[in-house]
Amino acid sequence: MRLSGIHKTTRLVISFELFPPKTPEGEARLFGRSIPQMLELHPAFLTCTYGAGGSTREKTFEIITRIKREFPVEAVTHLTCLGGTREEIRRFLDAMRENHVNNVVALRGDPPRGDTTFRP
C-alpha cells in the first residue's frame, strides 16, 4: 500500500526509521530481534535511511528488499539525491520497483562532512 493510502485509512500512524547496521552482528540483531519486536507494536511501515552522501545506498537497498520479502509490513526506502547522478538515482529506483518497493521518501540530503556548499 502506498503511504498516502496508509495515512487515509487510520487516524494514528506509527512507523520506525532504521539505520543500516555497520556489522554482520548488527544486521543479525536487526532481523532476528529488533524488527520482530517493532512489529509487536503494529507499525504501518518501516523506513531505512541512507548514510551521508548516499554512502549506505547498497545496504539500504539490501535492508529494504529483505524486509519486503520476510516481514508483513510495508517497507519504505529513503532516497538521498545529493551526491548521486541522475543515472545512479534512476538505477536505484528501477531496482526498488523490480523488488516491489513502492514507497520512497526522497530527500535532498546533507552535504558530506566538511562540504559547506550545495551542488545539485
What does this structure look like?
- This protein has 120 residues and is an alpha/beta fold.
- The protein has four helices and four strands.
- Strands 1-2-3-4 form a four-stranded parallel sheet, with helices on one face.
- Helix 3 (57-70) links the parallel strand 2 (45-48) and strand 3 (74-80).
Brief sketch in words of this structure:
With 120 residues, the chain is of the alpha/beta class.
Enumerate how many helices there are, as a single number: 4
The main β sheet shows up as: 4 strands, parallel
Structural Rg: 15 Å
* Global geometry: globular
Oligomer type: single chain
Helix content: 40-55%
Given helix and strand content, the structural type is alpha/beta
How many β-strand runs?
Answer: 4
Please mark out the parts with pLDDT under 50 across 5 or more consecutive residues, or reply none.
none
- Which sequence of strands runs across the widest sheet? 1-2-3-4
CA-CA gap between termini: 31 Å
Main attributes of the structure:
120 residues, alpha/beta, single chain, 4-stranded parallel sheet, 42% helix, 4 helices
Give the arrangement of secondary structure elements:
Blueprint: H1 3-9, E1 15-18, H2 24-39, E2 45-48, H3 57-70, E3 74-80, H4 86-98, E4 103-107
